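Quarterly update from the structural biology core.
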Amino acid sequence: MDTTGIGTTGIGTPGIGTPGIDTTGVDTTGILDEALERLHTTGPERNGWLTNHAPMAVEALARHGHSAAVHRWLDAYARKLEDAPAPSAPVTAGTWREALGDPARITDWTRYFGRELADRPWRDVLAEWWPRLLPGIAGGATHPVIRTGHAVRTLLAPGGETAPRRAELAHALGYWAARHQPLPPLGALAPAPDAAAALAAVPPVPEQEGGIRERLAQLTAFPAWGAETEPETARERLAELVTAAVHRYATHGHGEPIMLVHAATAPNAVLRALPALPRALWAPSLAAAWAASAAVTAAYTPREPAPYKPVALTSEEVFARAAAHGDDHTIKFADTALDVGGPLALAAAVRAVELNPPVFG
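Predicted structure, tokenized:
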């Protein structure tokens, strides 16, 4: 296990083709599981509400062939980690409703899901809790659902059902349950023909100041879009939403470069989870993902677009730039942009590298 310091010369991340890396995106080094075990001694937040992004970032690094950099990246991130909060009272099948949305119960929730996942297939646990948690998808600034999407992706990978990855799902679901917070009641504006038009028609909140909770409290209505009932159509629309949100970042990411990545990464987390969910849950998943993406867009979108520069880079080169940059949101956004693919998505990922402060000089 490499836990040496990074120093001042950068992360030194390897590219695709590093020994022990499956170029299909499967980590065969064991480093991801090591990193998750290391992180499971820490809590999902710091300073009372800031999210621990490390589990998501290291999964993306490993996924894209940068496993050799994971522990060094974690060493640099370690100052942002805190111990898990103390437990208070066990969550049970009879008491979970009163604990839902209580951030003081984060550890209680994590332990509950740890027990559930020890006794039952993880897909069954996910299918039971997914519809319970979906209404609170925007809670924790959408980070809990994003962490869940990364966890599900690791479990779906060939050979992915390891103990650390099951534990990561418990941490992700526990975080989501503790930070569960429904959006205010919302009206419907004029229908939009597609996802890009729907995002463009989202009205900004009146007061774009303060934290995300203050901004989301101002939401009143979104354009009507994404009300699909057929599972396969819902999946297609969800992919369309992720693509539109990634592309929009290229021209609108400057509005709030960190927060606006979630307009794309949150619905992509839902898209990643669909293969593990019953098809009956795909349509409500689209509706919740649209609400989350629209909410972030309303909270932070700028009044005017800005130009972006096309890039002549491969996907591997774009992700390597994000990894060398080191910012957790930038890494996760590049990961989602590569899922979308194409010149505009890659340009959006490079735009995130340009806009967000680098961790490594």
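Residues 231-252 form the longest helix (22 residues).
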